[in-house]
Amino acid sequence: MKAFYEKFVQANEERIPMAMANTYDDKNSIFYGGHKDGNGLAEQYGTVSYMMHLSAGYFCKENKFFKDEKVFETIKGYIQFYFNTVRPNGTGDCLISDFFTPSSFDCINVARTYRIFEKYATEDFEKESMGRIYKMLETMGEGFINGGHRTPNHRWMISAAASMVYNITGRVALKDLALKYLDEGIDIDEYGEFTERSPGMYNEVNDNALFILARELDLPYLYDYIRANMDLLFKYMEPDGTIFTQNSARKDKGENDPSMGFYPTRYFYIYLQGAYVLKDPRYAAFAYQVMNETIRYQRSVSEDLWLYMLNEELKTFEPETVPLVKNYEMYNPTSSIYRKIEDDFSVSVIGNNANFLFVQKGDLKVYARLCASFFMLAQFKPEKVEKNGNVISMEFSAEDMYWKPFEEKQDTSVWKEMDHSKRKTCNKQVLTFKVNIEITGKTVEMDIKVLGTDRVPFKAEFVVTSGSMIEGDFFTVSGDAGQSIIPHQGYVKVKYKKDTMLIGPSFKQHTYTANMRGSVPKSARGYTIYFTEYTEIDKKIKIICE
User: Fold this and answer.
1) Does residue 254 surpass a pLDDT of 70?
2) Which residues pair with 440 in a beta bridge?
3) Rounded Cα distance, 521 and 512, in Å
4) Does residue 157 surpass a pLDDT of 90?
5) With 90 as the cut, is the pLDDT of residue 101 above it?
6) Which helix (DSSP H) or strand (DSSP E) does residue 164 occupy?
7) Measuring CA to CA, how many Å separate 335 from each of 47, 347, 385?
8) Which of 4, 34, 185, 396 is the most buried (most CB within 10 A)?
9) Could you tell me which of 412, 519, 498, 386 has the C-alpha nearest to residue 456?
């Protein structure tokens, strides 16, 4: 996009000195020449990523580092680092977790680097380094043949990288490998959700890989999968511009605290491709929105100069846009999630999660948990989220019992060697949660029933944005991070900036809260409001957004 080209040049210029300052300078180490990350590790992925960024800056005429000798020497050091650290079978190491792993993420950036050199290199010394980068690609391709994958998204990254190396080197075995993975089918459901359900991180990885595969192997059918997932992100956007990630199956789920947020900055180049390749004005509008908000709120600009260097027409590309739909309702029973967005108000209900309800009004967020001290088993985590008309329903049960003495003497006194299935049991107990949620306007009402064993301590907890002002009938307190309160009666008023919620009516029968056995740890980042009671329970709690 023409509107942001200068911004990407500037971002590249700002990061090049930092990259060069963090080059591993211990000449006695095999890591010499590599890029040192925040942990002091010289990782192959980080190093070759910076090789791509420095190459984009080195060959960009508008960049102040254009044809800079020191930048080029740093690039040469990155190349040598790779050959120093690559494994004999062509695999590499991700020092934070994976060893002898195919360099798929790395290779995509190396292939982009090679194509930048191929397009702009004119000097003999530049072409000599391009030849070494070609050897890197050959070696990485060997690693794909000798390696394998560990997660669903690794398949598509290996396939995408292999397809790029195939088109550069002509090694047919790499094309065959990519097609073999594609024969497994794309792991995406009818709602556009990938297996890993990772809108904050790995959905972008998958979309990127599928764009590459569609282009490199001329497989236009893959664009249907890309569109489905790109459309899904629209329904994961929150009123404050963050991405709702709490239904993720990967690490972008984070600590589930309301003060955490994933912004869609990393998706800019995906939606730019969507606007350019797929000619969709909605994707263009979203790309504009992402970058405009990134600049307005002074967030870190993504490092996408490489895309402009490989596709120079993007420097003058001014796509058509259309207004994005902001209000919607989504229900995906496969992923056990329901979401509703209306202006600055959002509700999310998710299964398989202790944090099952999220409500947001503007900048104010709250999420809810339920738990009972029932054999350390009764943290409410409903498997299914069912929608029946206007009602969202969830159910969860836990049970346990006690063992009797053995009827016959055992052959051993070692507990772990005993056959406990031969014991009789007694006093079996069951506890069942039934929760219905109904949304009316900007009010969320929970109907909570806990049935079965009586006299079990129960808590409902509401974790709100820290820094809020918390008021009740007889108190006013500052909602500092990591702190909590147990109101006795009435509604609790939570105010943050210009937004307000009322939660209640509250109830208090005990103070067994943060240390309740079997419950998830108390939030360290949010402020927690506890309601407490004993089972059996039949309560209605409202969250009223003003």
Assistant:
1) no
2) 443
3) 13
4) yes
5) yes
6) helix 152-169
7) 36, 16, 9
8) 34
9) 519
| Nearest Cα to Cα of residue 444 among 361, 525, 327, 508 | 361
Tens-digit pLDDT profile for residues 408-464 = 999 999 999 999 999 999 999 999 999 999 999 999 999 999 999 999 999 999 999
Structure tokens at 425: 């049991």
Peptide bond into 505 cis (omega under 30): yes
At 537, list the tokens: 């329970």
Q: Are 303 and 57 in contact (CB under 8 A)?
A: no
Q: Confirm if 373 and 251 have CB atoms less than 8 A apart.
A: no
Asked if residues 104 and 160 have their Cβ atoms less than 8 Å apart, the reply is: yes
Burial of 41 per CB tally in 10 Å (0-12, 13-18, 19+): middle
Task: Report the greatest alpha carbon distance in the chain.
Answer: 88
In angstroms and rounded to an integer, the radius of gyration of the C-alpha atoms of the chain is: 28
Residue with tokens 């420097």: 315
> Which residues fall within 8 angstroms of residue 16, CB to CB, at 6 or more apart?
53, 54, 57, 65, 71
Per the CB < 8 A criterion, the answer to whether 360 and 346 are in contact is: yes
Instruction: Domain ranges for the chain, please list them.
Output: 1-148+263-325, 149-249, 328-545
> Are 339 and 346 spatial neighbours (Cβ–Cβ below 8 Å)?
yes
The CA distance from 308 to 11, in Å, is 13
CATH level 3 topology of 328-545: Beta-galactosidase; Chain A, domain 5 (2.70.98)
Q: Is 156 left (phi over 0), alpha (psi -120 to 50) or beta?
A: alpha
What's the token pair of residue 219? 């497989």
C-alpha–C-alpha distance, residues 232 and 225, integer Å? 11
Q: Distance between CA atoms of 344 and 240, rounded to whole angstroms? A: 8
Tokens 């500092």 belong to which residue? 480
Question: Residues with Cβ < 8 Å from 501, sequence gap 6 or more?
Answer: 359, 361, 364, 366, 464, 493, 494, 543, 544, 545, 546
Structure-block tokens of residue 92: 């590499």
Q: Say whether the peptide bond before residue 536 is cis (omega within 30 degrees of 0).
A: yes
Residues pairing with 42 in the sheet: 36
Q: Are 219 and 175 in contact (CB under 8 A)?
A: no
The amino acid that residue 204 corresponds to is E
- Which contacts of 321-326 are long-range, i.e. CB under 8 A and separated by 24 or more positions? 321/281, 321/282, 321/284, 321/285, 321/288, 322/281, 322/282, 322/285, 323/285, 324/234, 324/282, 324/285, 324/286, 324/289, 325/234
